[in-house]
Fold these 2 entries.
Entry 1:
Amino acid sequence: MDALTRNLTYLGALLARPALFTLYFLSGFVPRRSDLWVFGSWGGHRFADNAASLFLHCQAELSGSVRLVWISRDGNIVRKLRDEGYEAHRVWSARGLACCLRAGVYFFDNFCKDVNYWTSRSARKVNLWSGVPLKAFERDIDNPRNRYYRLFHGSPPERLFLSIMMPWHVDRPDLIIATSSENAQITRRAFGVQDDAVAITGYPRNDILFEDSGNGQQARQGWPEPFRHAVDAGRFVFLYLPTYRDSAKPFVDVDWTDVDRLMERHDAIFFLKLHPDDRGSLDATGARVIELPQGIDIYGLLPATDALISDYSSIIFDYMMLERPIIHYLPDLDEFRASSRSLIFDPAEIAVGPVCESGATLTEALFAVLEGVQAPLDTQTRWSEIRRRMNLYCDGRSGRRVLAEITRRFPELRTVRHEEPDLGS
């Protein structure tokens, strides 16, 4: 998007704000139905992450007693879900608006705009969030150049203008879920909510990691064809998932030809996928180095992979539950600290595998994994300690705990009886 287009988009959004804030105010007077729940993910552009996982879990647990609706800005997502027998509507369609105005609960991965912020006043709002916070976020961001820092800590005119443009960031949810007590403390501070607004349930998206059918037919339906072929052929599968850089600067320094040759020698495949907010490309080439499409939900892929490569992404804490090799590729650590958000955890201190700062050391680490080189004993010990710190529950029952927490906190919501998990285990 060029500067002119971007400025025109912002101008249009600003001119629309009076009408949208009027809609938001009026939506608070519409009677809400306790048996109508709406879900959305990543600004309405994806069917993925915790929201998608909880949506599918609720279909199994609550279908018939609660009306469950997915709201999206993407017509392809709506059509696909309808073909699979689920109710889904576009956000500004007549039916989508009707559902959002009457829904008693909104479930979303990041902010209420994942569904429709402008119709959400007086609804219960449940933020399922998008990961264990390795990077500072929301009120914890300390980089004055970051617009979110200015939203919460800037001058009064800056805060007013940005809160008008991004009101979902200052709108506090009724409930946020977390994976551990340490994670919960960070989340409370970043969102500026009371202690009891955060519940430690684990993330529903990780439940698939514990299912015996993780590589079964249902999970395979979301696999891209090259990934399916690699798994069916019994090849060793690497998955590289870098996080988003606020600076948008290039960060990969890898000789993809060398990586491709290494994969060929060991009958392995190297898949990579950029963060959903990243609009760039890694420009990787080779029959054994394959970039996956942006729109896929990677959690359906994880159980079928053999090793993960990542950097400052919370995906490492999720992947630890599989007890498989993790490589930490940090080629731009100093640049990331200088131009992006600060890090809550030092990557080296939480690393549970080799830390690579160049493409050459990354290739060496890939070779070591393929050769089955064992991690040192102190690394194995740190692995167990960090997994306990970041994930209180490793049992595949997080979706059930979220439903139990909702039932406990919001008694006005009508649900069917479902299996109660052991919240203390």
Entry 2:
Amino acid sequence: MRAASDEGVDLVVVGPEAPLVGGVADALGAAGIRCFGPIAAGAAVEGSKAFCKELMSAAGVATANYQVVDEVEAGLRAIDRYPAVVKADGLAAGKGVVIAADEMEARAALEALLVEHRFGTEQVVVEEHLEGEELSLLALCDGGHALPLASAQDYKRIFDGDRGPNTGGMGSYSPAPEVDADRANEICRDVHQPVLDELSRRGIPFHGVLYAGLMLTADGPKVLEFNVRFGDPETQAILPRLRSDLLDLLERATVPGGLDGAALDWSPDAAVTVVLASRGYPESSSKGDVISGLDEVPAAVHVTHAGTARSDDGTIVTAGGRVLNVTALGTDLAEARAAAYAAADMIEFDGKQLRRDIALREVRA
């Protein structure tokens, strides 16, 4: 905040969730600096799974049946069939969700969270496992109005075929073929808007991005989770398609009612993002591995640095779990996918991991 004040910054856009949960927007507001991002009370929608579930229940938003527990045996009793989902209550960088296939896996997850206190959580949410097609829908919010962005789908598991542990996201594409603008508006009306209204009723105006992770079930859309910022890696596939002035939209979102009447202009192109991760991810990460091939990537392809650093000699090296995001546009998903993977294959570093099935099913459909 001091840097923003010293530099005369009049708009701060907060990216990570932890500062929002920690109250950076509150501090900026107190200093008279506009912030695109919710105050701490609103950021609890992501910061606490238990709060989020209670909020959705009060708002009448469809979600999985659940119980909040603080003991292992209570968690096991809350499960009536498998697979079941066990979620850390607090922030866990996308790694705090376990889909337990049986009681042994459920017990292991509950003990890791409630006995070992992995991710520092004191309670967990145990919920039914939903089946259907996953969808990510982000909306810009001005405290009272939600404006949906283009749809996207991400890939949480580390390995092809949705195998292995959850990650922060291994790739994404936009738009989701089954969700056009009309459908996105309908989902926003039934999911995002009621949450905004309930927060407002509680005296918590929400300014920023409200990201809904959804499952399109046979009974309609149900919310898996909410995030309170631009979701990664969906944003990398969404924003390159946006033709409207993003800065103008962010500024308008900081003003109550500022998004009223706003209309978004989207490119008809599709986008595919492929994440390159380091050795050991998501359990650990390898740092200091030299990255080569970045200068070979075509200018039309977006390469977003996530877990990288510059060594003393100027070389770009790995510095985290998810290292790079490679995003390409195309007239359809097939073209975008081909371009993204061609660029991803130009980049090399020891232990590089990537999924090879991002948008593959949609291309083959």
